[in-house]
Design brief:
single chain, alpha/beta, Aminopeptidase, Alpha-Beta Plaits, 2 domains, 8-stranded mixed β-sheet, 4-stranded antiparallel β-sheet, 10 helices, 16 strands, elongated
Length: 398
């Protein structure tokens, strides 16, 4: 195993400049969810240059293929997301986004580059393992219903069906050179809530002539907090937040309607359904009791993400062997959502974090922020560790 570790680390060093250039190209040419046509073509071009020409398009801009080892055996899937966000980049780098208003602010350029690096390494080392490694370059992680759900419906987890699936994501809170894991439930489900509160507008000085949707909205927002504070089991983490409220355009005119946008997140599918039903019931009843009405539209989002206990424990042990025990940290629950969760409800999965922070270099911005960037030495760890984790699991005989 030590010889394999040294070989993979050596290849990660050898391929670093090439993967760095790949990352720069993808970062400079971001594309929004389900519009990643140039990105997909670029990935195919790079794979062909590695000697990997037999790939398949799935979900229009998704790409999947397999690398077979020296003999048949288990199948491990490796996934990277390829889409960017509608954010204007504020960094001043040679690889700054050239597509105005679009930016790889969540590190998907890193994920894609690392998976390409891992593919190059594993293709060279295909005589070192038994079994099959399936690669998934997935579109649309940032946009509901999530590219993962679409690819699953189109059969990405079949022919062959993976025994386990592995995903990697940047983490600006963790220093470069370290990675993080968590066994069991890790990331929350996420549903979008859209309320349209309807009343009857009028002059603000004549309250007897109107039904105030602003006052109704205020009461709805306050009352809905009881869903978490008084209806939820305290042992189930839950968050209900409203990020946008819109209505009216002048101080002395009451509008006819107000819109409220929010999100609900939790870690239990039964409670998730109950909570969403309660949100609808409370909002509509309050509006009606105050003389108005409320249309409730709930866009079902991603389920909670669960890391298989046994598989994740094996990955933790393998990561410690590859990186040193001091460089593998335990993660807390994370209330953000990720569509990799769909995979984890289909096959045993593990979603781990790649450290990218370097305070000395001023690289500290979080994801989804216009100044997000990484310490690019993380690419060496990213591609090498993913390749090693795949081989280690294929070698596991338990």
């Amino acid at each position: 195993m030590n010889n394999l570790i040294e070989k993979i680390k050596g290849l990660s060093e050898d391929y670093f400049e090439e993967i760095l250039d790949i990352r720069h190209h993808i970062h400079a040419n971001p594309e929004l969810s389900f519009k990643e046509h140039n990105t997909a073509a670029f990935i195919e071009e790079k794979l062909k240059s590695f000697g990997i020409g037999e790939t398949r398009r799935i979900g229009s801009t998704g790409i999947t293929f397999c690398i077979d080892g020296r003999k048949s055996g288990k199948t491990i899937a490796l996934r990277a997301d390829i889409d960017a966000l509608p954010i204007t980049e504020e960094n001043d780098t040679s690889y700054k986004s050239q597509n105005k208003g679009v930016m790889h602010a969540c590190g998907h350029d890193v994920h894609t580059s690392n998976l390409l690096g891992a593919a190059k390494i594993l293709f060279e080392l295909r005589d070192y393992f038994e079994g099959t490694i399936k690669f998934i370059f997935q579109p649309g992680e940032e946009k509901s219903p999530g590219g993962a759900s679409i690819l699953i419906n189109e059969g990405v987890l079949e022919s062959p069906r993976p025994d386990h699936i592995l995903g990697q994501h940047v983490m600006p809170l963790i220093p470069e050179g370290k990675v993080g894991f968590r066994k069991g439930k890790y990331m929350a489900s996420a549903d979008e809530i859209y309320l349209t509160v309807k009343g009857k507008g009028g002059h603000a000085a004549m309250p007897e002539t109107f039904v105030d949707p602003i006052a109704i909205s205020a009461q709805i927002i306050v009352s809905l907090q009881q869903v978490v504070s008084r209806m939820a089991n305290p042992k189930i983490p839950s968050v209900l937040s409203f990020g946008k409220i819109s209505g009216g355009n002048i101080n002395n005119v009451i509008p006819n309607e107000v819109t409220i946008d929010g999100t609900f997140r939790t870690f239990n599918e039964v409670w998730r359904k109950q909570a969403l039903n309660s949100i609808k019931a409370i909002a509509t009843s309050i509006a009606e009791s105050m003389g108005g009405s409320c249309d409730v539209n709930i866009a079902s989002g991603y389920p909670y993400l669960v890391n298989d206990e046994n598989y994740t424990e094996r990955n933790i042990s393998a990561a410690k062997a590859y990186m040193g025990e001091e460089n593998v940290v335990e993660l807390d629950l994370w209330m953000a959502a990720e569509d990799f969760a769909f995979y984890t409800h289909e096959v045993p999965g593990c979603f781990y974090r790649l450290g990218t922070r370097n305070e000395a270099k001023g690289i500290t911005s979080g994801v989804h922020i216009p100044t997000f960037d990484i310490d690019e030495n993380a690419l060496k760890v990213g591609m090498g560790l993913m390749a090693f984790l795949a081989i280690a699991e294929l070698q596991y005989k338990g």
